[in-house]
Write a sequence for this structure.
């Protein structure tokens, strides 16, 4: 019944992957891994892990570049694993959007503690039962959406889109990411059905769909839920 927490390891050194995987697995997590930054970004999108452990020295791209690209569409906590001890690398990683930094070699206890902290900080909506943005209220338990006192009737798909955006309020969610999240990793990368759904969502949520106050369009990129309110 209980869903295992999935952790993605992006690391090119097989020995370290093996150690991390066995530590994580023996502590009840599900570990998935890959050796390159590109593959890591793909897996982050398709698997939506709860935490990413990221090596900075990857064969195809710099780990900081992986964080920068990831942060364009995802809030997944990233813990950087690196042999680099220089202050500058740590600051860069955090500036790019890493949540934490751990220098190799590290102890199992330290690693697990960092992971628990990252999980606690996962999207603020992670454990809450509802979200309120302005007059918009989403109750995750009853699946009820209201604007003011008015109940809004959304289809399953529309509800999923609204929840995903609300849980990531303030962050741009790319078309690709939304499509993969809602329709699955093998979905066609066609934005049309997403746009059609968004038209309907706005018609139901927004006072003036032409000037949305809840879900903004980031032209050519995706959508962003307002987080002020
Ligand atoms: Ca490496």
């Amino acid at each position: 019944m209980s869903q295992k927490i999935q952790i993605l390891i992006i690391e090119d050194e097989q020995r370290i992957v093996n150690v991390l995987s066995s530590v994580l697995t023996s502590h009840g997590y599900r570990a998935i891994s890959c050796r390159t930054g590109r593959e890591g970004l793909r897996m982050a999108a398709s698997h939506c892990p709860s935490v990413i452990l990221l090596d900075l020295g990857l064969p195809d791209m710099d780990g900081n570049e992986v964080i920068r690209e990831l942060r364009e569409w995802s809030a997944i906590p990233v813990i950087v694993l690196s042999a680099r001890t220089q202050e500058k690398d740590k600051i860069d990683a955090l500036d790019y959007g890493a949540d934490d930094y751990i220098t190799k070699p590290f102890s199992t206890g330290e690693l697990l503690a960092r992971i628990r902290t990252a999980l606690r900080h996962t999207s603020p909506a992670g454990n809450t039962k509802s979200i309120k943005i302005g007059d918009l209220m989403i109750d995750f338990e009853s699946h009820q959406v209201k604007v003011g006192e008015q109940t809004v009737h959304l289809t399953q798909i529309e509800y999923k889109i609204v929840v995903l955006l609300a849980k990531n309020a303030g962050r741009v969610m790319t078309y690709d990411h939304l499509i993969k999240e809602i329709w699955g990793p093998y979905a066609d990368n066609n934005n049309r059905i997403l746009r059609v759904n968004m038209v309907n969502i706005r018609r139901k949520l927004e006072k003036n769909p032409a000037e949305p106050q809840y879900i903004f369009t980031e032209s050519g990129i995706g959508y962003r839920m307002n987080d002020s309110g």
Notes: The chain has eight helices and twelve strands. The longest strand covers residues 6-10. The pocket of calcium ion is lined by residues 12-13, 55, 57-58 (CB under 6 Å). The mean pLDDT is 87.
